[in-house]
Every structure is written in structure tokens, then in C-alpha cells.
């Protein structure tokens, strides 16, 4: 996928696309020094990472407070910070990845807040929306999400082909309202929107 194809699919402005291009360029540069994403995903960066993250933007209201857990190289949180009028908090324990996130944040003017901390060690962010991608199994993710989610908030998790098995397992420990949407980047994947989460 090219940046132009990304823009055609998401409808982002030229200004937003330019900021995402800065992000993409920095990712390629830093990837040579530290392992930020799977090396084999770099040639398909705009689909595998940018578009995969961007598909969450329509689910996030204006002025929402977003907590992106285990943000890694910034997906989806940093993409959402660039695209959406949201207050985005990135939580990542790896110091080198946080150094990368700080540089992208500065160069793109994303305005994200970066927390170099373990998810469970950080004081609750009281977020309207908790996001995560490729961090942990769903049951564990929900536990992490509950630490940082307002009681009225929701979790938005990007999940791959095992999503149904993970959901079945998670429901042994958690009661919740579940909406699922097809992923636009993974035919077998889903976006899970979880609300009214309670421990069983």
C-alpha cells in the first residue's frame, strides 16, 4: 500500500498524511538500530501498521482520553494521536521504544503523552477508550484495560484469527457487552469493542 492509497481509504488530509509520512520515515530509520516491528512487515508498513491502526479512529469520539497499552512502536496509539482530536496516552515499558516514541511525537507534533512504565504499575489513566494491539491474550488485556478505563469507558482491541477462541476463554472470567467489527487489514481479524466490563 502506498501513502496515496492510505489517504484514499482513510480520507485523511494532506497535512495529516505528511505527519504520518514523517512517522513512517523515522520508523524505517530507527528499525535499522532497534527492533520496533517485525522486519518482514516494513515493506507493507502502510497497510500492516498505519491502516491497521487508523481503522480505530472512527470509534473514538472527539476530545476522548485514550490509553494505548503496550504501545511498542506506537501502533495504534501514535497513529490515533496524529489522526484524531483525542488526548492520547502511550504506555510502554521499553526505554528504547519510548525514546523512539518521543522523537516521533516531537517531529510530528502528535501531542501524545508517553509513560515509560509497566501497565499494572501506572496509576489509572481513567481513559474513555483503552486501545491495544498484539500485546497479550484477551483475558489479560481486559484486566489491563480495566485498570485504566473509566467505568463508562470502552476497550477497543485489534485481534487476529484466534479472536473467537480468545473471547470464549475471556468470558469465563469477564462479563461484558461485546461488539465486533471486521478488520479492514486482516480478513480473519476483528476489532472488538467491549463495554460494561465486570469480573465474573
- Given helix and strand content, the structural type is alpha/beta
User: Per CATH, what is the topology?
Assistant: Rossmann fold
Classified in CATH, the superfamily is: Vaccinia Virus protein VP39
- Residue share in β-strands: 25-35%
Quantity of strands, as a count? 7
Report the radius of gyration as a whole number of Å: 16 Å
Order of helices and strands: HHHEHEHEEHEHEE
Strand order, sheet with most strands: 3-2-1-4-5-7-6
The rough form would be described as globular
With helices defined by DSSP (H or I, 4 residues minimum), what is the helix count?
A: 7
In this structure, how is the largest beta sheet organized? 7 strands, mixed
CATH architect. name: 3-Layer(aba) Sandwich
Tally of individual domains: 1
Distance between the termini: 43 Å
Q: Give the uncertain stretches in residue-range form.
A: none
pLDDT averaged over residues? 94
- Specify the helix fraction band: 25-40%
CATH class: Alpha Beta
Amino acid at each position: 500500500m502506498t501513502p496515496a492509497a492510505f489517504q484514499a481509504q482513510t480520507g485523511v488530509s494532506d497535512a495529516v498524511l505528511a505527519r504520518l509520512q514523517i512517522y513512517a520515515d523515522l520508523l524505517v530509520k530507527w528499525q535499522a538500530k532497534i527492533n520496533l516491528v517485525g522486519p518482514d512487515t516494513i515493506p507493507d508498513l502502510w497497510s500492516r501498521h498505519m491502516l491497521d491502526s487508523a481503522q480505530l479512529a472512527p470509534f473514538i469520539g472527539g476530545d476522548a482520553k485514550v490509553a494505548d497499552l503496550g504501545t511498542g512502536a506506537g501502533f495504534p496509539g501514535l497513529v490515533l494521536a496524529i489522526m484524531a482530536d483525542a488526548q492520547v496516552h502511550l504506555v510502554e515499558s521499553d526505554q528504547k521504544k519510548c525514546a523512539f516514541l518521543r522523537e516521533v511525537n516531537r517531529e510530528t507534533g502528535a501531542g501524545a503523552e508517553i509513560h515509560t512504565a509497566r501497565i499494572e504499575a501506572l496509576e489509572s489513566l481513567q481513559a474513555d477508550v483503552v486501545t491495544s494491539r498484539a500485546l497479550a491474550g484477551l483475558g489479560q488485556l481486559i484486566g489491563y484495560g480495566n485498570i485504566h478505563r473509566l467505568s463508562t469507558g470502552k476497550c477497543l482491541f485489534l485481534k487476529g484469527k484466534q479472536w473467537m477462541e480468545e473471547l470464549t476463554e475471556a468470558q469465563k472470567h469477564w462479563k461484558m457487552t461485546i461488539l465486533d467489527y471486521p478488520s479492514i487489514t486482516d480478513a480473519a481479524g476483528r476489532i472488538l469493542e467491549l463495554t460494561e466490563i465486570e469480573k465474573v
